[in-house]
From TrEMBL:
Residues 157-430, 898-1179 form the ABC transmembrane type-1 domain. It comes from Chlamydomonas schloesseri. The lineage of its organism: Eukaryota, Viridiplantae, Chlorophyta, core chlorophytes, Chlorophyceae. Its main location: membrane. This is Uncharacterized protein. Pfam families: ABC_membrane, ABC_tran. Residues 482-704, 1217-1452 form the ABC transporter domain.
């Protein structure tokens, strides 16, 4: 049969044909449209040629304009020198808040693909096959960036030479004035000072421009390199390092390297500057005073180095505390639903705040060292000045203005190298450590599809055509597409093998089912096939493309459609067929925007079953040759499971090679091969018939009851009733190994010669007609007959034009299972071909109707389906209320902030008085020299010393107050945020990605702890210093006011333009940077799936497009900074020039005052520049405070405790639940999910809740816990209205075992009893024994204290569920809620748990949400929901006796499925309906069993 799936619409040649051919969609077609060119990660992440709508409104435009030159590329020489090409962007930013669309594209040289390509080539060139097979990172960095680094070093030397000309020119000017030189000479020197300042301005800005571009390119190269490597690491490396550590390499270690280059030149340039300053000082002050100054400098450098080391050590300690807090916060946010359900909010908040207090203690220590470091920076020139001037005066030299003020200017130049040199040496050490970690990661083991002994060909060689693979023409006449020979596998090179001596060969088109107990190695076998395990021996061969679904499905944070397409081209008919076969049609009606609805992070807004179906749809759409399906049927409703098995696994995929891991043993007869696994070995392989004949005891997976997925009501209910009932598979007299579905009859028995049914019919029931066995080759001949009949002239076709071969099936392309379904509907295996054509025409009409409904649903849902709200960013200035909230958290009545401002003014005021003292001292010296007297050096020196030391003391006092206030604010604001977040309703968490919430507890909290206080300090210091410098200049030369007024206006204008643009650019950069890390984290969690589909290149392109998107915001920030710097430095140069001209030319003053004015003006230049940056930095950092307090406006859920309405002591005693007229909706604008629901549950009753997906089962349980509040009606437990009491009082009295188990990192003990409420270890072991986990835990080294990794990563999904069951047992509540608590465990364990529920919880009220009927069929009551309303409620027996009962319909379908579960359900059915006698009411249609070796054969129901 052809491998093509096609569905033809009416309209002949105009009909769109969906082609799912072999080989699969090529690697090239899965690439992003336009590769890395389109850089919006949201719009262009996966661009599809979607006929219905453009994939990305802006992507095409972006791609077209990409090659158009950016403003920087198109700029002329002067525009580049003055950075004038930024003007348009800066002006736009001042007019309105900038948006991402306003930013330029990245230039061609900055394209992520181009930059990373150059770096990867350089890295490959450094590879050494023995020592460094992946290359040496530092060598590659030097080879790519070494040239630019040397170029910037040359610019730096030129800049330094120009910079030192300023003090020399100042000295010349003051000498000239002291000697009574001409005004013309003074003016000439002032002009020279201006020229030097402008030259210094342009060189320093060009230097930083080149360095920032180098840093940008290094950032792109490292992020891309790490991402690329992460796509290749083995699963063992990933598990060993952990997702967090790997992500940390990108966010932390790589960041140290790309940040280092900006100031790395200081390492050689710092000593060079210090030597130059000393040389100039010797000229001015002679050797001894200069050496005294140098001595202080030499003492300060080791001091700052020691401080730096202490600071680094303190920060390392702080990071440990921060990591512990962030890890716990991460687990709380990820598991917030479980924490709310268990009412653990209070204890977890206390635990986090305990860690927070430890962290803040360390932060206080770090900040104290940091503030001391800053004090050294600010007081360095003061101390050097004290030493130098003291020595100078002590040696009897005359201190003139020409000596004092050039020396003071030189001392200020020392400030930068003194503080930066030690910190850069520390940064260099840290970067080296980061580089070593990155190099180690680069050398980690890689997974290879071409490793010796592992053969994997995504597109196998075909002989003749794509269809040859289905026949036997390909691969040398039918070579097995999948084979393992003598395979032994471990997760890494050092651990014990997980699989041993595995030999398995799978023929093309076979369906292989893998069964075994929890932990037997089923998932590991699939991992071995994918090449994800370390192969110790044997060989693996995989021929053809692979599609894979994980046991824990990986869902991307994008739309449902993009999840399914996964980068493939959009083919409408194939896509619709996929949605139909994966039972997603009904879900599209429920999702707000159909298939365009955005799926939250990790599929947060999908149920477990929906996640599995989306993952299965992604695999199905891929049209691969080989399918590896890891238990996709476990979490879905019964009838959905049957639909997936019939319509997808054995329908659309019938001619594909399929390996299905499953616990649903009722499907085993449909398998071509059954593989039984135990303890990492394959125990048995064969057809189901052969294994039963060999006496394989399938009861080892079933125990007393098998866990089957019973059937629920589906869309064909009317048809089912029309056919007259259901097949009854009844229980045998005693359990026997053969009690599973019976082996298929021999070929000779085909037809109506009475082959034995699955089990003997009960005497109380009319015996069902014998099943009709149809050989798969018989079906093949019938297909041919149908096709021939359809091709006859005058025979209507169900699609296509004349001559189009039409296969009689609901799915275009002619599914074998579809034909089987039609045969069963018609009940004739050997009917005429004409009858078959009629049947298939009916099938085609039915299919077309369903298709039309699906298309109609998708059309109606064309509205905004985003569940994840776009992260809000503040626009415009930060509100005053935010500053107020922060400063008021320092202390009551703003006492501390006022004190800090006072100390700041006092400290800087004293330093200004110092300079006046120096001015008076030099003038006094000059006067004394003129009068031939001796100056009073002692008095001036004492005053100078005293003022300097007191200013340092005040600075330390201010720092202490600042630390105290900021730490208090950090504790208070973080506590408020945490208290708020845990009290927010679940609807809030559904619309917020975990990453965004975590940002508040990581990035924003860190900014609050470290950056905000520093920014407040810097902004305050610079503002006060600038203000006082202006005051000095104005006091000395009142005429300067005339120059200052216009300059102040220009300065203010430039500042406003810059702040408005820079603030928004930094916000945009912050938002655009997040997707890089989010995508990295998402990739790491879905690594196995991405590699199985061979989508690494596509995801690498997505990472590069994320980088381009981020850099569109990052690069303008750097350029706008240069734009500001050029303009402020120019204005600063004009201020110095005007001060010099005023005091030396227009109104010549004495040299002392002239020196003071010019020195203050020189100081003002740098300070003004720094002040604008610090003001902006403060605004940007206050965004973190803004984000931390923004959640305060959200409405909380109900109070934890309502004091006037506490539940009575010992409540609930009986566990009786009464629900009346209950109405529930998720949001006010949505339709109700539960509509007027009313029922009563007696105390200690066991109630099963069932109904199809979306009927409101989970909503009912969420309402019981008040995760969703009712908007009408009431719920009472033992007469207490649950809406009147507090949430803690309610939730702490209920127990739940959820469908998705939530496990926290820690130990087995901390997971069972996180707050030490259990009486002792005995209770815990008893709970573990009852849950079937005792042996597993005892096998661990430390028993109850054995470590559990984050998210329970070192346990299987089934084991996690059992641990949650043990937790519920230990809690011993009167009411237990089970939400499909056994979906991921094997049937034997399931049986044990069911028995535990009946015994351990016999005195409890138990509500069980059932996806599988055997778990509820013996309940006291059954509650059936339909579309949020009560369909029926009563005892199972009463419902089963009603022929029109919904529940009876479900049970009949389950019985038709066969197997022991069918027998169990049938025995209950028999007991309930015995009174009906042999009236025939239960007569059933014979099941059709497709026998023989044909692919996809097996038992099925209509």
């Amino acid at each position: 049969m052809s491998a093509t799936w096609s569905t033809s619409k009416k309209g002949g040649p105009n009909g769109i044909k969906a082609q799912f051919g072999l080989p699969s969609v090529s690697e090239e077609s899965t690439r992003l449209v336009g590769g890395a060119a389109s850089d919006d990660p949201n719009a262009a992440a996966f661009s599809f040629a979607d006929a219905s709508k453009p994939a990305n409104g802006g992507a095409a435009a972006a791609g077209a304009s990409r090659r158009a030159a950016t403003p920087e590329e198109a700029a002329g020489f002067l525009s580049r020198v003055f950075f004038s090409y930024c003007n348009t962007l800066v002006k736009l930013g001042a007019q309105r808040p900038l948006e991402h669309e306003d930013l330029w594209d990245v230039s061609e040289d900055d394209e992520a693909a181009a930059v990373s390509g150059r770096f990867q080539a350089a890295l490959a060139a450094t590879a050494d096959p023995v020592k460094h097979p992946q290359g040496v990172v530092w060598r590659a960095m030097w080879n790519v960036f070494g040239g630019s680094f040397v170029y910037t070093a040359a610019i730096k030397v030129i800049h330094d030479i120009i910079m030192f000309a300023s003090p020399w020119l100042l000295e010349r000017l003051l000498h000239h004035m002291a000697a009574g030189g001409s005004r013309g000479g003074s003016f000439g020197i002032a002009v020279a000072i201006l020229g030097v300042a402008l030259a210094e301005n342009f060189t320093v800005n060009w230097y930083f421009h080149v360095l920032f571009r180098m840093s940008l390119h290094l950032k792109i190269s490292l992020i891309d390199m790490l991402y690329d490597k992460s796509l290749r690491i083995t699963s063992a490396v990933k598990a060993d390092m952990g997702t967090g550590t790997i992500a940390n390499l990108q966010s932390n270690d790589a960041a140290k390297l790309w940040s280092l280059v900006l100031y790395l030149h200081v390492v050689w340039n710092g000593p060079f500057q210090i030597l130059c300053v000393m040389f100039l000082l010797v000229r001015i002050m002679h050797w001894a005073p200069s050496m005294a100054g140098l001595g202080v400098t030499i003492v300060i450098i080791p001091l700052t180095t020691l401080l730096g080391k202490a600071l680094a050590k303190s920060r390392r300690e702080q990071i440990k505390f921060t990591d512990a807090r962030v890890k716990l916060c991460s687990e709380v946010i990820t598991g917030i639903k479980a924490i709310k359900l268990y009412a653990w909010e209070g204890p977890y908040v206390d635990r986090i705040m305990g860690l927070r207090d430890n962290e803040l203690r360390q932060i206080r220590k770090t900040q104290a060292l940091s503030m001391f470091n800053t004090a050294m920076f600010m007081s360095g020139p003061v101390l050097v000045g004290l030493a130098a001037f003291g020595t100078y005066a002590g040696l009897g030299y005359s201190l003139t203005a020409a000596v004092a003020f050039p020396a003071l200017a030189l001392f200020n130049l020392l400030r930068f190298p003194i503080i930066m040199l030690p910190s850069q040496i520390m940064s260099l050490i840290q970067a080296r450590v980061g580089l070593q970690r990155i190099q180690k990661f680069m050398e980690a083991d890689e997974m290879s599809h071409s490793a010796p002994g592992y053969t994997s060909m995504p597109t196998p060689p075909a002989h003749g055509s794509t269809t040859s693979l289905n026949g036997g023409g390909g691969l040398g006449g039918g070579a097995a597409p999948l084979s393992i020979r003598d395979g032994t596998f471990a997760w890494d090179g050092s651990s014990e093998p997980v699989l041993r001596d595995v030999t398995l060969e799978v023929a093309r088109g076979q369906l292989v089912m893998i069964v075994g107990q929890v932990g037997s190695g089923k998932s590991s076998l699939l991992a071995a096939v994918l090449g994800e395990m370390n192969r110790r021996g044997g060989s693996v061969r995989v021929m053809g493309s692979v599609a894979y679904t994980a046991q824990d499905p990986w869902i991307q944070n994008t739309t449902l459609r993009k999840n399914v397409l996964m980068g493939g081209e959009f083919d409408q008919d194939a896509y619709l067929a996929t949605l139909q076969s994966c039972a997603l049609v009904a879900d599209l009606e429920l999702l707000p925007a159909g298939d365009q609805s955005e799926i939250g992070e990790k599929g947060i807004n999908l149920s477990g079953g929906q996640k599995h179906r989306v993952a299965l749809a992604r695999a199905t759409y891929a049209a691969a040759d080989i399918y590896l399906l890891d238990d996709p049927l476990s979490a879905v409703d019964a009838h959905v499971g049957r639909h997936l098995f019939d319509e997808c696994i054995c329908g659309l995929l019938e001619d594909r090679t399929r390996l299905l891991v499953t616990h649903q043993l009722q499907y085993l007869p449909a398998a071509d091969l059954v593989v039984v696994m135990d303890a990492g070995r394959i125990q048995h392989v064969g057809t189901y018939d052969e294994l039963v004949a060999r006496g394989v005891d399938f009861h080892q997976f079933v125990a007393e009851e098998e866990s089957e997925q019973p059937e629920e009501q589906d869309d064909e209910e009317q048809e089912k009733k029309k056919e007259g009932g259901a097949a009854a598979a009844t229980a045998p007299a005693k359990p026997e190994p053969a009690a599973l579905p019976a082996p298929a009859a021999p070929a000779a028995a085909a037809g109506t010669d009475g082959a034995a049914s699955a089990s003997a019919a009960s005497a109380t029931l009319t015996p069902p007609p014998p099943p009709i066995y149809v050989r798969s080759d018989t079906i093949a001949s019938l297909v041919t007959a149908v096709a021939a009949k359809a091709a006859e002239p005058g025979t209507p076709t169900s699609g296509g034009g004349p001559g189009t071969p039409t296969k009689p099936a609901r799915f275009g392309g002619g599914s074998m299972r579809r034909l089987g379904s039609s045969l069963r509907r018609g009940g004739a295996a050997n009917g005429s071909s004409g009858r078959l054509v009629d049947l298939e025409r009916e099938g085609a009409a039915e299919y077309a109707a369903e298709r039309a409904k699906l298309v109609d649903t998708m059309a109606k849902k064309e509205k905004d389906g985003k569940i994840v709200k776009v992260e809000e960013r503040a626009k415009g200035r930060v509100e005053r209320s935010v500053y107020s909230a922060y400063l008021s958290a320092w202390s009551p009545y703003y006492i501390l902030p006022i004190a800090v401002v006072f100390f700041s003014l006092s400290e800087r005021g004293l330093q200004v008085l110092q300079n006046f003292t120096l001015s008076n001292w030099s003038n006094a010296t000059a006067r004394a020299a003129a009068e031939h007297k001796t100056a009073h050096n002692g008095a001036y020196l004492s005053l100078y010393f005293t003022l300097g030391l007191v200013s340092i003391g005040l600075q330390l006092c201010r720092s202490a107050l600042l630390i105290y206030g900021s730490i208090r604010a950090s504790r208070l604001l973080a506590r408020k945020l945490l208290d708020k977040v845990v009290r927010l309703p679940m609807s809030f968490f559904d619309s917020q990605p975990t990453g965004r919430l975590l940002n508040r507890f990581t990035k924003d909290t860190e900014a609050l702890d470290v950056n905000v206080s520093g920014a407040v300090n810097s902004a305050l210091t610079t503002a006060v210093t600038a203000a006082l410098s202006v005051v000095v200049v104005v006091i000395v030369t009142p005429l300067a006011v005339v120059i200052f007024l216009p300059l102040t206006f220009i300065y203010y204008r430039v500042q406003q333009l810059y702040i408005a643009s820079s603030r928004e650019l930094k916000r945009l950069d912050s938002l655009a940077f997040s997707p890089i890390f989010q995508h990295f984290g998402e990739t790491l969690s879905g690594l196995m799936t991405i590699r199985a589909f061979r989508k690494q290149d596509q995801f690498l392109d997505k990472n590069r497009s994320n980088l381009n998107y981020s850099n569109r915001a990052y690069w303008p920030i750097q350029v706008v900074n240069r734009w500001l710097s050029v303009r402020l430095e120019m204005m600063g140069a004009l201020v110095v020039f005007s001060a010099a001209v005023t005091v030396a030319v227009i109104f010549p003053r004495n040299a002392g005052l002239a020196g003071l004015a010019i020195t203050s003006a020189l100081n003002l230049t740098g300070i003004m520049n720094w002040m604008v940056r610090q003001t902006t930095e403060l605004e940007v950092n206050m965004n973190s405070v803004e984000r931390m307090i923004e959640y305060h406006r959200y409405e909380e859920e109900a109070p934890a405790v309502v004091e006037g309405h506490r539940a009575p002591r010992g409540w609930p005693k009986e566990g009786a639940i009464s629900i009346k007229d209950l109405v529930v909706r998720y949001r006010p604008e949505l339709d109700p999910v539960l509509r007027g629901l009313s029922f009563e549950v007696a105390g200690r009753d066991k109630v099963g809740v069932c109904g199809r997906t979306g009927c409101g089962k989970s909503t009912l349980m969420m309402t019981l816990y008040r995760l969703v509040e009712p908007c009408g009606g009431s719920i009472t437990i033992d007469g207490v209205d649950i809406c009147a009491i507090g949430l803690y009082d309610l939730r702490s009295k209920l127990s739940l075992v959820p469908q998705d188990p939530v496990i926290f990192s820690g130990t087995v003990r901390s997971n069972l009893d996180p707050f030490g409420e259990a009486k002792g270890d005995g209770d815990m072991w008893e709970a573990l024994r009852r849950a079937g986990m005792e042996d597993t835990v005892r096998a661990y080294d430390k028993g109850l204290d054995s470590v559990i990794k984050e998210g329970g990563a070192n346990m299987s999904v089934g084991q996690r569920q059992l641990l949650c069951m043990a937790r519920a047992l230990l809690r011993a509540s009167r009411i237990l809620v089970l939400d499909e608590a056994t979906s991921n465990v094997d049937n034997g364990t399931d049986s044990l748990i069911q028995r535990t529920i009946r015994t351990a919880f016999k005195d409890c009220t138990v509500l069980t949400i059932a996806h599988r009927l055997h778990t509820i069929v013996d309940s006291d009551k059954i509650l059936v929901l339909d579309a949020g309303q009560l369909a029926e409620y009563g005892s199972p027996a009463a419902l089963l006796r009603n022929p029109d009962s919904h529940f009876r319909g479900l049970v009949e379908e389950t019985m038709r499925g066969g197997g022991v579960t069918g027998d169990v359900v049938a025995s209950v059915f028999n007991a309930a309906t015995a009174a009906e006698g042999a009236s025939g009411a239960l007569a059933a249609l014979p099941p059709v069993v497709v026998a023989g070796a044909g692919a996809g054969g097996g038992s099925s129901s209509s």
